[in-house]
Amino acid sequence: MSWYMRAMLGITSFHNLTSTTQLYGKTIIPTCKPTTSSFQRYYNVERNQDYIKFKKTKRWVIYATLGSGIVVSTLCYHGIENVPFTNRRHFVICSPMTEKLVGDLELEDHKLKYKGKLLDEKHPQSMRAKLILKNIIQGLEREVKRNPNSNASGFIHYDEFNWNILVVDTLWIQAFYIAGGNIFICRGALEAFTDGELAMFIGHEVGHVVARHLAEFPKIVSRSS
Question: What cofactor is needed (predicted)?
């Protein structure tokens, strides 16, 4: 039984040691509690400042989102038009007057680019091209007058067009348009096509101008990039 007594003695000694440690624990066991409350006050102030900063940031994001939504909605409301004849709806981001001003600037640039290569207005090919364009525009105006919803269908901007066609003295078979009613065509197309074929060739460019394709949002982005 001696081993049993020794074991009990060891357990009793360990129990007494633990009790003594708990009794004097305040002096020998370190704690994580701060000795003063200043650290807690400083920590609370930092948390409040972070919360206020986050709240202001969140409010700014909300205001910016709402403002952007209002601007986009306004642009979409005023920028959606019907394309004449096809009634396709498209989004334009500039007025017909602005489009015409841009077209006038581009016209001057192209005149400088083709300086010395433009046929005189009294040249037979120039007069032929102008006559075909005149017939196309007259037919277009007749259709506009026959349309009862001309203003609602996008026809109202026709009055601001100054239709004109210039012939570039080159054998290329090509034509292109500029906003505002100006069309360039190469002499090669006039020599290769009949009047009926030229009417289709020039009428294609007139259709681009009438539909205001250059004022459409994707076109503006691609031209500016």
Answer: Zn(2+)
Per-residue pLDDT tens over the stretch 59-78:
655 656 655 555 555 555 55
Q: Is the pLDDT reported for residue 147 higher than 60?
A: yes
CA-atom Rg of the chain in angstroms: 41
Token pair listed for 127: 């007069």
Confidence of residue 42 (pLDDT cuts 50, 70, 90): very low
With b meaning 16 or more CB within 10 Å and e meaning fewer, what string describes 58-85?
Answer: eeeeeeeeeeeeeeeeeeeeebebebbb
Distance CA 119, CA 129 (A): 11
Can you give the residue ranges of every domain in the chain?
1-31, 39-82, 94-224
Smallest CA-to-CA distance from 189 within 210, 165, 208 is with 165
Rounded CA-CA distance 165/176 in Å is: 10
Report whether 216 contacts 91 (CB < 8 A).
yes
Alpha helices in the chain (DSSP H): 2-23, 25-28, 38-79, 96-113, 124-146, 187-192, 195-210, 217-224
CA within 13 Å, CB half, 117: 16
Distance of CA 32 to the CA centre of its chain: 58
